[in-house]
Design a protein that fits this description.
Elements: E1 16-19, H1 32-42, E2 44-48, H2 56-63, E3 78-81, E4 96-99, E5 107-108, E6 111-118, E7 128-132, H3 133-139, H4 142-149, E8 152-159, E9 162-169, E10 171-173, E11 180-182, E12 199-203, H5 210-221, E13 227-230, E14 237-241, E15 245-249, E16 259-265, E17 271-272, E18 276-278
Parallel strand pairs: 1-2
Antiparallel strand pairs: 2-14, 3-16, 4-15, 5-17, 6-14, 6-16, 7-13, 7-15, 8-9, 8-12, 9-18, 10-11
The structure holds fe (ii) ion.
C-alpha cells in the first residue's frame, strides 16, 4: 500500500509513526482514508506533535470522521483518569491485563482512538501495552498453537456499564480478513490487588494443561517482538486495530497526572459481537 503521508515504519516491532513536520500542524489535515489504511496494514498508528484537541467535543468531531462512533451511556469519550475511590480497575492506577475492547458489548469497535491530554512523568509508568496477535500466531510453534486452538475463554464481568458474559475461542478469525487472531483476557494472579475482577473460565483442554496454556500464551503475547509499550507524551494520538491487537495498561504512580481520552469507532459495517452471550447493556437495577 502506498500513501501520500510520510510514515515511519515500523514504530516498534510493528506499527507506524507520523510526526508533525512543523509546530501547530493540524492532524485534521491528514487524509483519514489513508490513516485508516495505515492502521489496518500496521495495526497501530502514533500521530505525534500535532496541535491538540481543545476538548472532548473536538476529539469526538475528529473521531466521527473515522467512522461511526460506538456510543456508551456516558457518551463518546471515556475519560481515563484515576478516580479517588475507584469501583473498577479501569479507574485505578494499577495494571490492567491484556484484553480486547467491546468484548462485553453488543458491538466490537474496529478502532480505538486514544488522545493523551496529560502524560505521566517519565518514571511514573502508565504505558499502554499492545500485543500483535496475528504475529504471535504466525511465530508460534505447531505444538503450542495446537494447544491454544483447543481453548475457549468464558468471561463474565459486571461493572457500571454492563453485566455480560462473553464466550470466545482463543484462536479465532479476524472478522474482515479472516486472518487468525487471538481473543484472550489474561487472568490476574489471585494475590494481585485488583478492583472488580472479571470471572474467567477456560475450557477445551484438561484442567492440568491450563497452567501451560496460560504460561505459553502470556509469554508469546509479551515477547518483545510482539509487544509494544506506548509511553505517552502529552498530545499523542494513538489509533489501534482492536480486531487484531490486545491491549492493557502498566501500573502507574498514584496521583500521576495521567489523563487519556478514548473513543471507539466501529468497523464498516459495524461488527456485532460474536462472543456476547448475555447482557451488553447496563446491569439491571
Ligand atoms: Fe481496554
Amino acid at each position: 500500500m502506498t500513501t501520500s503521508i510520510p510514515a515511519r515504519l515500523p514504530l516498534a516491532g510493528y506499527g507506524a509513526l507520523i510526526e508533525a513536520s512543523s509546530t501547530g500542524e493540524r492532524l485534521e489535515e491528514l487524509p483519514v482514508g489513508e490513516l485508516r489504511e495505515l492502521v489496518r496494514a500496521h495495526h497501530l498508528l502514533l500521530l505525534r506533535g500535532f496541535s491538540a484537541f481543545a476538548d472532548a467535543e473536538e476529539l469526538t468531531a475528529y473521531c466521527a470522521r473515522w467512522g461511526e462512533i460506538s456510543m456508551w451511556p456516558f457518551g463518546a469519550v471515556l475519560e481515563l483518569v484515576e478516580h479517588e475511590n475507584p469501583e473498577d480497575h479501569i479507574f485505578d492506577h494499577r495494571h490492567v491485563p491484556l484484553h480486547w475492547d467491546g468484548m462485553y458489548r453488543p458491538q466490537v469497535p474496529e478502532f480505538q482512538l486514544f488522545h493523551c491530554v496529560s502524560a505521566p512523568g517519565h518514571d511514573q509508568g502508565g504505558g499502554t501495552v499492545f500485543s500483535q496477535t496475528s504475529a504471535v500466531l504466525r511465530d508460534a510453534g505447531p505444538a503450542v498453537r495446537e494447544l491454544w486452538e483447543q481453548v475457549t475463554g468464558i468471561y463474565r464481568r459486571k461493572m457500571e456499564y454492563y453485566d455480560s458474559t462473553a464466550v470466545s475461542p482463543v484462536v479465532t478469525a479476524h472478522p474482515v480478513t479472516a486472518e487468525p487472531v487471538i481473543r484472550y483476557n489474561e487472568p490476574v494472579a489471585p494475590d494481585d490487588e485488583f478492583i472488580n475482577h472479571p470471572d474467567l473460565e477456560f475450557t477445551g483442554v484438561p484442567a492440568e494443561r491450563l497452567p501451560e496454556f496460560h504460561r505459553s500464551m502470556s509469554a508469546a503475547l509479551r515477547a518483545p517482538e510482539h509487544m509494544y509499550t506506548h509511553r505517552w507524551r502529552t498530545g499523542d494520538l494513538v489509533i489501534a486495530d482492536n480486531y487484531t491487537l490486545l491491549h492493557g495498561r502498566e501500573a502507574f504512580t498514584s496521583r500521576a497526572p495521567r489523563h487519556l481520552r478514548r473513543v471507539h469507532v466501529l468497523g464498516t459495517p459495524p461488527l456485532d459481537n460474536p462472543a456476547l452471550r448475555v447482557g451488553g447493556g447496563p446491569p439491571p437495577g
